[in-house]
Amino acid sequence: MKRILILIVLLLPAWTVSAQGDLQVGAVFDGKVVPQKAMKETFIRSSQLNPYNLEQYHSVSFTGDDQVLAEVSRRVLSDAGKATDQEIHMDSGKLVYAILTFESANHDNRFVCYQCVSKAGSYAITLVYMHGPATLDDLKKLFRTKTK
Amino acid sequence: MDLADRWFDALLTGGEERELKSFLATTEDPDFDEIKAVAGFFAAGKVIATSRATAGADSPRRTLHWTAALVVAASLALIAAIGLYHRQNDCYILAYGQKSTDPNLVLDDMTATLEGIFGEGEDVGDELFDLFNPAL
Lengths: 148, 136
Fold this sequence. Notes:
The structure holds 2 protein chains of 2 kinds. By secondary structure, chain A is of the alpha+beta class.
């Protein structure tokens, strides 16, 4: 009985760890940079994502000052170093847009998208994490088509 | 030999029986082979009966342990199944402390966000495309 309990205790952290936990931006999703009550979080993990060829979608958006922007940017750029593909746009030394792709051999690609819009001294930041068999081209085609 | 005959007739006292057993354990006299064999048979039978009784006394406890282990395992499996279902079928918007699980609302939010992100990417791409393909 003791062995079973020890096994459960050992397995619990593995069960609760988030999908983006190995990325630097994972802390932002976990509310460690901006409190969760101060941001909008959207999470989808269901068959509704099947048309998009995705398994999970997770986004957070919030408003922050220079310090928040610097912290989030630092984390995105740190993850960019591990990405297999990246699109990064800087404006006046500030990170304004990034799409990071982490391709996987088993067709479980991961994406981190970052967008920052300057708003009268503060910044509206959106951070997205997705994973699934979809490629970046698939997603671009899908969501560009919808805007037209 | 008198003790042996009385032992077969079950007429010995406890002390006499112990005395007889002590004697049988040391004598090499073939006249006592028969009683030694019978006494050995009873001794072996007593050991077997005692071990069975001990095992029988433990079995309800073991059964209880197995039942408890099965109940715990079944409960964990149920919790894991519910957790897995929720992990695989979760859909919500948590906006500034307010939670909504309306699938349409959540999906609309995702679409708007991704259109905003890939729409911006499209502008850059289109600009580059126009730059390198002015005739088109």
